[in-house]
Design goal:
The structure holds 2 protein chains of 2 kinds. Helices cover about 75% and strands about 0% of the residues of chain A. By secondary structure, chain A is an all-alpha fold. The chains are: A mainly alpha, B mainly alpha.
Amino acid sequence: MSHFLSPIFASGFFESEAVHIALGVGTLVAVVTGVVGVFTVMRGQSFAGEAFGDLGTTGGAGAYFVGVGPLWGFVLGNVIAAGAMEAIGVQRVRGRDLATGIVLGAGLGLAALFLHLYTTGHSTTGATVTILFGSVFAISSTTVPLIVLLGAIVLAITLTIYRPLLLSSVNAEMASARGIPVRLIGVLYLLALALAAALAAITIGTILSTALIVGPAASALRLTRRPLTALVVAAGIGIGAMWLGIVLAYDSYYWPPHGTIWPVSFFVVTLVFVTYLLSGLPEASRRRAERTPSESSAARPATAS
Amino acid sequence: MVNAWEVASIVAVVAGIVGFFTVMRGSAFAAHAIPNGSFAGAAGAILVGVSTLLGLGVFSLGGAVTIGLLGRRGRHDVATALTLVAMLALGALFVSLSVEYAPEVYSVLFGEVLGISPNEIAPTAILGALCIIATAVLYRPLMLSSLLPEVGEARGISSFRMEMLFLAVLALATTMTVPVVGTLLIFSLMIGAPAAARSFTDRPLVAMGLSVAIALLIVWIAIAASYETNYPVGFFVGAGSAISYTIGRLCAVWRNRRKGATKQERISQSPVWGENTP
């Protein structure tokens, strides 16, 4: 069978344990990030998702410095960051991006310090690249149980607060008028996002983790209006991107320059980005079909939002 | 060492001025995304062997254009996020394809003060002058378009064109500031200083001047501290920006308490700052 598929799957693909772990972890992370991502995009909190990704750098660098596994660093760092963002007031739309940005700046500065201290004390210099760009192939089997547990927690939170979260994401005032504790829901959502971002970080790196959270979800929301469908589509896109990315990365060992693989994260993010671009096509062609000759000459004033 | 002071001062002035508009337009995310994406340009330049400044310029401008175009159709924050990570992913590829050079990656990301050579002063100064001139020319239409977009449209100032021009200036500012402060941290200077300035005054020109002054202070302290401790400049810039912002917030709260509830409405609800969440 491997002879048939050898043009697509380079030799050893199906036997490699690293690949098995990568596929399994990748699938779980794609589902978790896709689900949380749909709410993130609906709430317009892509920047917060981005901030968690970058702040994961701080947690990961700190973890290296202290000597524990990076995933613990991502989780702890993100949870602390969630608390800080909540305290500053990330829930109020006004000034929210500013607050997020400030926390992000302080956190990244700290990451710079940790990495500097770590690399001056150790001979290995690849810590920066590993944390930032990750590698799903480098996940050891001992980390897998923790990943599964975290994924389960995120899904449990999201499922428990699904309806109030959906309502408050679509229309916060109406939700609180109906007696939904919007603030509490927001905090729980932020926690779920923090953990999801940590999981994304361990697979494709901290600063790229936003791609998994925002990309598939944004594409899904462009293709469908129904929330449940969007969740499924987002997870599906994420899984597809992860699997294809893993295959391509494994194969790239034989591409120039020979002997090293291209980063998995590069493939995954590129696939997610391309999918997002493609997801805009149905709308664009619909708009073009609807435009009559008289309308096409008048340009629609486009605003920044 | 003297080179570092001169270049860093130019960086601070530009960051303070461009940052003023960034905060006003609520474009903190774009200010974060464009430099991060430019990292790919620096990595690519190192891979191919051309000037880092060129790589930074091309990719930050490319990123700005992409964000502007994509943001027109889809959600603005999504467009920014995805453009950012797409460029970063390219950067990851470039880094992995070139020979192991981790220290250079580190300094592109977090800044390197000791590595600034004399022949970087001229390009930085020229680019900085361009930024300031562009901002001066665009000042009136940009202010109008940022604060009252509909009025601007009525007067023939296209919001979209202003957005693209602003993003272009942001890209230009990024290109010249990144070598000192690093891609990951330049934006914190661009939003921390102006955000602190706005807590002290509502008047635009005064706020801009104050923003420049605070940025200069942050950068000078950062350079001195980095020189002393050997810790990266970016760390001190991030910390300094956060401290400035916090002081500003505390002062705003104190001002509110002194002047009573009606003034609080005026300060916290001033339409000038951060209202236009993209």
